[in-house]
Specification:
The chain is of the alpha+beta class. Helix content is 31%, strand content 31%. It has five helices and eight strands, in the order E-E-H-H-H-E-E-E-H-E-H-E-E. The protein has an eight-stranded mixed sheet with strand order 1-2-3-4-5-6-8-7, with helices on both faces. Helix 1 packs across helix 3 and helix 4 (114-130) packs across helix 5. The longest helix has 17 residues, at 49-65. The protein starts with a strand and ends with a strand.
Length: 182
């Protein structure tokens, strides 16, 4: 499936293109995962070229299964596109009213509105694409000690819903944010 989404430029940041991951992204993915902050917040850090290729392969498998949709997020720069984030739509099941969105942002892109714009683009696409299958609610989870993710949720229209108790694989309590289809 070839889905390409976009998020408009802002006065402070270039436009974004969101597309499925491709083999050519593996080296950039490996470089981005050198960031210790990203590694600390992800369950499956990418530390080798083989793991980067496996990440891309699993992404394609998710698309093929029509249940997990992982987007590479690229900034549209004059010199070309630069990989800056990932947004994934998970737990999509026909007849199930809720799905989950997750994301990460590369270090150079943090604090510039990349994640909220990308999450918003994927959320809008998900509600349109899966409305007939009954999708009415999107959820975003993050650990309680990650205030940046709380801000991303709020900026992308996800209202705080509740504190969730810690449970594997998450070692700390977390927040659940919700956005409803209008």
């Amino acid at each position: 499936m070839s889905v390409v989404l976009s998020a408009a430029a802002t006065p402070a940041a270039p436009g974004l293109t969101l597309r499925p991951w491709c083999d050519g992204d593996a080296d950039d993915l490996l470089e981005i995962y050198q960031d210790p902050v990203l590694r600390a917040w992800t369950r499956y850090p990418v530390t080798t070229r083989g793991e980067a290729r496996a990440f891309v392969r699993r992404s394609r498998q998710g698309w093929a299964a029509d249940r997990r949709f992982s987007f590479a997020v690229l900034e549209d720069l004059p010199a070309g596109e630069r990989l800056v984030a990932c947004v994934v739509l998970k737990e999509v099941r026909p007849g199930h009213p809720a799905a989950e969105v997750g994301y990460w942002t590369a270090a150079p892109a943090r604090g510039r509105g990349v994640a909220p714009r990308a999450v918003d683009a994927v959320t809008g696409w998900a509600f349109a694409r899966f409305a007939a299958a009954g999708l009415t609610r999107m959820e975003l989870f993050h650990q309680i000690d990650n205030p940046a993710s709380c801000r991303v949720a709020e900026k992308s229209g996800y209202a705080f819903a509740e504190v969730m108790p810690a449970r594997p694989p998450f070692p700390r309590d977390g927040h659940r944010h919700v956005r409803l289809r209008h």
